[in-house]
Design brief:
Helix content: over 70%
Number of helices: 17
Number of domains: 2
Structural class: mainly alpha
Mean pLDDT: 80
Radius of gyration: 21 Å
Distance between the termini: 46 Å
Largest sheet: none
Low-confidence stretches: 354-358
Oligomer: single chain
Strand content: under 5%
Length: 358
């Protein structure tokens, strides 16, 4: 699952956000999905073949490995369909599309457990099937979603151009700090086995501000098309930060209530991770604003720089701060990424003379 998911990140790159952007500017959802799917297909093919060889080398059954080549494309396209529906203002359809795979997968696993037929292949094929069903449902939902024809002012880019831009923005959507979980890898590499349990428990509370930022990020393109663009953007970016601060203030009580006194040592970790979650949520919104201004590459560079900063801080502080050093390093890296993005947006506003006064 991990191999296929990571390869789908590369294949889909940042096309889900680009689909959102095009649809929010009036492009027909069906045209957006068609063009984006053609931009994804070449990378998905080569990624799928690579994944197949990796899975075969790991001892996975041939049929399962071959199915993974198709699933890489499916996992890359499903978020793009959801992004196009969101950009077109079809929020209910987008929510159904984005949640259907998880719902079907949960139902399939429930059936597997009830009938006591739990096997590795059964779980994998349930995951494959749930995502294929989600794709079929998404293709059905785009019928009649949004505009039916591209307005003259909308110029859809070619699949090759979308692919190039999507790859430039790969790390802006799939940050190494988040999608590739280098913080948890650092915990595994540097601490005892109990450390990962404490860290994961603390990290669970940080998901709320990150989820809030991810949700608001899908609306950035629409907000930046309005007259009060700066005011709306600032409010959206502050929301996950404030949520992170609130969660940090309650982290000690929340950890004790949710996990019991055995995990009390995770309270200090949770404080820093909730703050980091707030900055991560705000960063998602800032990165979408940079993508709106065609600065996908700048957003990716800020994420790479933040990841390098994280590793430097972990190496230099773990010796005397332990797990708290990793949590504080994540918070500092998330803040730096957000700050770099905001500084870039301010520079864009000053150079263009638009939006920053609104």
């Amino acid at each position: 699952m991990l191999v296929v998911t990571l390869l789908s990140f590369v294949s889909g790159n940042s096309t889900s956000s680009l689909a959102n952007l095009y649809a929010s500017n009036g492009a027909a959802v069906s045209n957006v999905v068609s063009t984006v799917s053609r931009s994804i297909l070449p990378i998905a093919f080569y990624s799928g073949v690579l994944g197949c060889f990796i899975l075969l080398a790991l001892g996975i059954h041939l049929a399962t490995a071959l199915a993974s080549t198709i699933l890489v494309f499916v996992l890359a396209l499903n978020p793009a369909i959801g992004g196009a529906l969101t950009g077109a203002g079809c929020f209910v359809r987008a929510a159904i599309c984005q949640s259907s795979a998880s719902v079907v997968y949960a139902l399939a696993l429930t059936g597997i457990l009830l009938f006591s037929v739990v096997t590795f292949e059964g779980v994998i094929w349930a995951w494959f099937g749930s995502n294929l069903i989600a794709l079929g449902l998404g293709l059905f939902l785009i019928r009649g979603g949004g505009a039916t024809a591209d307005p003259p002012k909308i110029r859809m880019r070619s699949p090759a151009a979308i692919r190039r831009r999507g790859l430039r923005g790969l790390f802006s959507l799939h940050s190494p700090l988040e999608s590739f979980r280098i913080d948890q890898l650092a915990v595994v590499a540097m601490s005892a086995s109990t450390g990962l349990g404490l860290y994961t428990a603390a990290l669970s509370l940080a998901n709320l501000p990150k989820l809030l930022g991810q949700t608001l990020g899908t609306l950035v393109a629409v907000a930046l098309s309005s007259r009060r663009r700066l005011r709306v953007l600032l409010a959206a970016a502050l929301a996950p930060i404030l949520a992170g601060v609130a969660m940090a203030a309650l982290s000690g009580v929340a950890v004790d209530f949710l996990y019991g006194p055995e995990f009390r040592a995770a309270a200090s970790l949770s404080f820093w991770l909730c703050l980091a979650g707030g900055f991560m949520g705000a960063r998602k919104i800032v990165n979408e604003a940079l993508r709106f201004h065609k600065r996908d590459g700048a957003a990716s560079v800020s994420e790479i720089a933040a990841s390098i900063l994280f590793l430097v801080l972990v190496v230099s502080t773990y010796g005397f701060l332990g797990l708290n050093g990793i949590a504080m390093a994540l918070c500092a890296a998330a803040f730096s990424s957000c700050a770099i993005g905001v500084a870039t947006l301010i520079r864009i506003g000053k150079s263009s003379g638009e939006g920053m006064k609104n």
